[in-house]
User: Fold this.
Amino acid sequence: MSAETSWTELETRMRELAELSRVVTLLDWDTQTTMPPAGSLGRARVTATIRVLRHRRLVEPRLGELLADLESSDIDPQRAAMVRVAGRSHRRAARLPDDLVRRISVASTLGNSAWREARAAHDFAQFQPHLEEIVRLKREQADLLGHDGERYDALLEAYEPGMRTERLVPLFEGLRSELRTLLDAIAGAPAQPSPLNGVVYPEAPQIRLANRILADIGFDLDAGRLDQSAHPFSSMVGLRDVRVTTRLYPENPFPSVFSTIHEAGHGMYDQGFDPAFEDLPLSEAPSLGAHESQSRLWENIVGRSRPFWERYTPVARELLGSDLGGMDADAVYRYVNRVSPSLIRVDADEATYNLHILIRFELELALLREELEVADLPGAWNDAYERHLGVRPPHDGDGVMQDTHWSDGSFGYFPTYTLGNLYSAMLWNRLAADVPGVDDAIAAGRFAPILDWLREHVHRPGHLLECEDLMRHVTGAGLSHGPLIDYLWAKLGPLYGISRP
Ligand code: ZN
Assistant:
């Protein structure tokens, strides 16, 4: 069979797999935004069925034959990349029986529902049996997928292909010690004030502000939409159907602004893949760390910058119909960059955020290594928070149950947040060197120079290269914590009147 004939058949199969994934994405979006709570058991079965159907298509021997055919043929770099990506998914999936795929899918959907209730009731005991089942299944899955003695690697591979625990441990240790130095310096400086005091910001104006910022920064609202959910997320239902959500707090309009910008960073990445490869393995990010580099770059480096708030303080005042507790642009800039060790990851500032991730990484690594069991997890969590952040959760709702990830089986996911932060700072260094006057552009509300640069260097290539290769290619540097730490000192040093030792 000619390579061209094999390619045509492979392409049809790859599109079908992507389309089945899109169905699951749409079901998940609906589950998290509009499904009535009583629908969860039925939804768990429907979602599991689609996942199993997709799994069966993915493991078909015919797909393996086509991939083997093309791996040994002379094909262009784009096709070679797609064969590499599809081949990896096929080989991983082939190690997992249908039955395990179904059990994991059902346990994840039910675990997620149980977690929602247990979290609201601050009652870990309700959630514990579900989490025990999920951890059992994830250990089993990791062993079937295969590893060199480190189960965690087998799960990490799904989110960050090529990354390994033995590389993360020293990378994160170096980061932790640099963050400690920074946080100790900040702890000795006067705290930044919090001028918001009890004023209520109604939903409609907050949503208007979110939509205004979405449109300004370049999220295409004809190919996307904004909804509300308990936990903000973005999902790519299709290249021209990208959905983001936000969460509103009545007494503080800023978290919604930042979650909107964060999810828009993800969403603009998804809207920016090359349309020529729609529903093929090139129209995806090479890893979740790469994806998070986009959301964090927009949320923190752009959205928490001084020029951004020079532009948007008057806009926020007008659209919210409020004087924001009397804050001018400088006060808002100081307010949104306050550093204070806290309990909740999603509300954490830029300087402490990664410590929340390192705690989760340590704990999930211990669970996979069977050095920790689920029953002991809440205590281990609380001790780790006390040790690393100096705070102790008053109950498990604000402690071990604050995140959704473990409830739906996403073990190995958390490190991608920190990798995304590291990559965002590396990318910004290069972007700021390539795009002169970027601060002036932000202050003028012109974001196209930033988005155009990201489109060209990060979005359009999609999964042509693996994440670390892409980042090295674009930035000329290897993965390290240096650029993020430099960025944090450059911003927080003047704000807190501290200098780097
Ligand atoms: Zn994100």
User: Anything to note?
Assistant: The two ends are 66 Å apart (CA to CA). The mean pLDDT is 96. The chain has 20 helices and three strands. The first strand starts at residue 224 and ends at 228.
